Amino acid sequence: MPIELQIEGSRLLTLTMLSPLLGVLLVGLVPATQPGRARGAAILSASITFLLSFNVLSRFVTHGRGFQFAERVEWLPALGIDYILGIDGISLWLIVLTTLLTLLVVIASTSIHEKLRAYLASMLFLEVGMLGAFMALDALTFYVFWELMLVPMYFLIGIWGGSRRIYAALKFFLYTAFGSLLMLVAIVYLAFAHQDQFGEVSFFLGDWVNLQLSVREELLLFSAFALAFAIKVPVFPFHTWLPDAHVEAPTGGSVILAGVLLKMGLYGLIRFGIPVFPFATHAAAPTFAVLGVIGIVFGALVAWMQTDIKKLVAYSSVSHLGFCVLGYAAINIQGMQGSILQMLNHGVSTAALFFLVGVVYDRKHTRLCADYGGLARKTPVFAFVFLVFTLSSVGLPLTNGFVGEFLILLGSFQFSPVLAAVAVTGVIFGAMYMLSLYRRIMFGPFDEAKNGDLTDLTMRERLVFAPLFALVFVIGLYPQFILDDIAPPSRRLLEHLRGKEPAQAPAALEDGVQSARSVTAPADTDTVDYAIRVRTEEGVQG
Amino acid sequence: MNILGSTLTGQVTENLLLVLIPLFPLVGAALLGVAVGIREDRRWQAGWAATLFAVCSFVVTVKLFLGIGDAQEAFRYTAWRWFESGQLSVALALRMDRLAGVMTLVVTGVGSLIHLYAIGYMHEDESRPRFFCYLNLFLFAMLLLVLGENLLVMFVGWEGVGLCSYLLIGFWYREMPNADAGQKAFVVNRIGDAGFLLGIFVLFWNLGTVSFPELQGLVGQLPPYLAETAALLLFVGAVGKSAQIPLFVWLPDAMAGPTPVSALIHAATMVTAGVYMVTRLGALYVLAPTALAVIAVVGTATALLAATIALAQNDIKKVLAYSTVSQLGYMFMALGAAAFSNGIYHVVTHAFFKACLFMAAGSVIVGCHHEQDMRHYGGLRKSMPLTFLAYLAATYAITGLPFGAGFFSKDAILWAVYSHEIVLFGTPINRVLWGVGLFTAFLTAFYMTRSLMMTFFGEYRGHEHPHESPWTMTTPILILAVPSLAFGFLFGEEFLHFLAAWGREDLNVGHAVLAENATYHLLEMISMGIAVAGVALAAFIYGLQPRLVDSLLRAAAVCRGVHRALLNKWWIDELYDALIVAPLRKVSAVLFSVLDRALIDGTVNGTALFMAANGEIVRRMHTGRVSSYAMVLFAGTIAAIIFWIVL
């Protein structure tokens, strides 16, 4: 699987990625006494970044080859470290999601009163990290951005969080840092393995694809990557940092955490895991599938038990991400496309749900379901918006949640009907916990004494929900505009994986020294056949 | 046996009009949704607007329906390709053939009448715009379900009607029981939907398509075990939506919704979606004899169980709800005998008389100032003569007395079950099922007559002064009373011929020929006698000997026991609570507190503490220095980036 870079001189990606730093600068220049201006500066900056990413989106060629808008600069040549960026259809939409959510978070930052400037700056720094991680094609560049995300998030939780914020922030930090340290070791190992085999140190994904790794090496290195990614997703049982982080984080932090950061793990598995470790990806797929299904059911059942709205939504993320992991592990086109689409959908609906929790929390300073009830009458607009995102979260057809979930389940059914049958119960449990949440907050008698002062959504809040609300139906009615972009890279990845099932490698397992890839070299013709077949099928369909 | 022949070869015409049918109610729902907050004095417009959209939809349906020629013809409209992945390609497409046409007529026709009725029924409710918005939205979803060209569009409607059902059952959400009932309906339906999804997966991965016409041509390639699997999985969906054992428990609770909702969604249209779906996939089901036998058994058992419960209910809506469950059971009996068109026949007649019954009951409820307990009715035929006439006609139809609509459609089902070999585990069971079906017919006649007697005859036992309902309510009821009486007599035979492609040839020869068949004649006589017996017995007890039941209950402990069991619905809800809901709750609580918090998180925190306590370096790294580590990393990265930009 050659990684093709479509180098372009415009440096559009770098520009987009670094544009939030302009905002950091502006926010820093505003005096602390003028929070409105600081927010205005941040909104301006986030808008620019969003428009830049929109520019990327509009210039992106759906059926283009390889990675578009690529940039390659020698960074530290002595160490073989390059700065390489480039995007395909998979990262494209995650980038747009990132810039959109950051913009909305900044707009919604009115509830932050202390150290507003630092908050905004952290958010914008975070955006740089997220965008960089989605754009990087060089493992070290990726790693730098990966870690860069960690720090502002740590501050966001630790400074603007709830009562147990220090505990939650520390836990978040240690958990993810622990995972990524092992990944760093693996990255360095691979870079030197490249030196052994090709004479120069390289961190470039495109170079790593050509590495000859023994099966044992591949499995070990993949494990190091996979652990870091699995913690980030989070895959059961590495998920316990998530509810704590979510509950303590400020609304904006939760939105970004759920909306974007959680996608980072699965993105890493797809971007680096599949090309570099195809055998290991196959070998680990059953494990990931089982853990994904456990996550689906476990997350849903535990969410059902929650009395804290935010915790409920946090555990629902464990369940939703379980679907994404299952789709990835199915190793077929439906699973892959569904998984990536569902990452975006989760970004839209769960981000919105966290915003919605923030709405009532800002007003009443409590997140317990029991403190609300009967709000449908008092705050009808809020109730309506909440209903729409609830339905999107339970995957009602014609909302965005459906198609992703459907494709994942469809794909996983081919992989294992039994696992799919267990996973499909997630559809039932999802309805159970989300509707019971909705019922507890919105229905029943309204307590005038306690919640009589509740007000409906303000214009600013409506503005924040408007784009997410629109996306629910746009994606629900016509997900194809995203699926079209996701299809070519997904197909390339699957072609790369084809013929590299563990069943074809037992010889290599016995003879640990021999290169795994050379054993299955003849399988390449298969790959070509498959590619042709896929194309013919398309032709027929078109 | 010519079953579900060559619909593939037929002529399919693209027709833009087709899209208007679901579009009208969708536009209506959108407009009303925007208008939920309009001024009090203008809210009366909402009902008329919604009714207008429903009627428009009906008119277009009639226009198109008259254009459907022979059995192979269909109209089609493709909106756009919804999504594609690999070889899966799903179009948002509609298709109307004879079967879909009949269902669409029922949905829009009966639907329009119920909209009109709801104007009167809801005229005091301040949330009318919201109500009619949901009602129109329901029509939209139901029409997608019926007109869907493929399994996924049907599924959109399938879940959509579930959503509207949820919203409408819990319409008066300030009362928690209503909200609970809505949620129960949605969740129980989702159990069925999960099966539906798995059924779609089996079909797709083996046949490579989800489109109905394509599936029809391809199902023959399925190996028998896969055909059985797919058929059974999809039937799980039908069990949920159409309230069959074991998932019927949501339907009686759904009576918490306003009565027009009960008439439209929980009697005439949505609950028959399962019957429609099985019929739509009839080509698959005829290849799955075991699945058909299961369907027949489930249907028969449901018919019987629900009818027994209906015997003892005092809430008039509950009687009708269990009656609906029971009648749906009959429809599945027909499907189990592969007599799909007979099943649809009963769907149609049931839509007439059950919608009529529900709306008449609603009229009684309004007339008696929101009293639903039949023990507080009595003698209402004098104060509510129009409602009485309609209820009488519909009761006549459902009890299966000669020449009412139910007489023909129920007989068609019983005949199909009697004469068609249904084999489960090697034993032919059709005679048993027929016997149970006949007995259920007796119960049906009994409990429906009981409700009629308790409500309209004898002396008035309530306190408020009952009054007849306005014309917006009585008109739809009286209109529906007509086909309840005459539909089978006038059109029954033509109807079965019209849907012949969805039935067994040998079952579709119609009454004219069958009447010369001695066995058929005999069966018809028997079921007629049964109906008369049931009606007569109930009329005797509740009309002439009102004390008889009480003295029976006092006299024999057995009677008391049975009565209690029926009154408490055989404790099935309690059973489910104890066997499923409570254990699931317990498991979830344990998963959360023990597995998640104590074990996993305990391990995580324990590891951290262990390290903090034992390693000096680790301690410093993990407690005091994290932020500085972070700062160093942060600063370093920024420096690197700036370094790169500058150079």
Give the N-to-C terminal Cα separation of chain A.
26 Å
Label the overall shape of chain A: globular
**By helix and strand content of chain A, what is the structural category?**
mainly alpha
Strand count, sense and barrel status of the largest sheet of chain B are: 3 strands, mixed
* Percent of sequence in beta strands of chain A: under 5%
Which chains make the largest contact? Answer: A-B, 72 and 68 residues
Please state how the strands of the largest beta sheet of chain B are arranged side by side.
Answer: 1-2-3
Total number of strands of chain A: 3
Percentage of residues assigned to helices of chain A: over 70%
Rg of chain A is 23 Å
From the alpha carbons, calculate the radius of gyration of chain B and give it in angstroms. Answer: 28 Å
Q: Helical proportion of chain B?
A: over 70%
What is the CA–CA distance across the termini of chain B? 84 Å
Number of helices of chain A: 23
The succession of helices and strands of chain A, N to C, reads EHHEEHHHHHHHHHHHHHHHHHHHHH
How much strand content do the residues of chain B show? Answer: under 5%
Q: Which strand order do you get reading across the main beta sheet of chain A?
A: 1-2-3
Shape call of chain B = globular
Number of strands of chain B: 5
Describe the structure.
The complex is a heterodimer of chains A (542) and B (647). Chain A has helices spanning 12-29, 35-59, 89-107, 116-135, 139-160, 165-198, 205-208, 215-232, 241-248, 251-276, 278-304, 309-329, 333-364, 375-378, 380-393, 400-415, 417-442, 448-451, 459-477, 480-497, 506-510, 516-519, 523-541, and strands at residues 5-7, 67-76, 81-87. With 542 residues, chain A is mainly α. In chain A, strands 1-2-3 form a 3-stranded mixed sheet. In chain A, a hairpin with a 4-residue loop joins strand 2 and strand 3 (81-87). In chain A, helix 2 (35-59) packs parallel to helix 4 and helix 5 packs antiparallel against helix 6. Chain B is 73% helix and 4% strand. The longest helix of chain B has 43 residues, at 572-614. Chain B is globular, with a radius of gyration of 28 Å. The termini of chain B are far apart. Classes of the chains: A mainly alpha (542), B mainly alpha (647). Chains A and B meet through helix 5, helix 6, helix 11, helix 13 and helix 16 of A and strand 2, strand 3, helix 5, helix 6 and helix 25 of B.
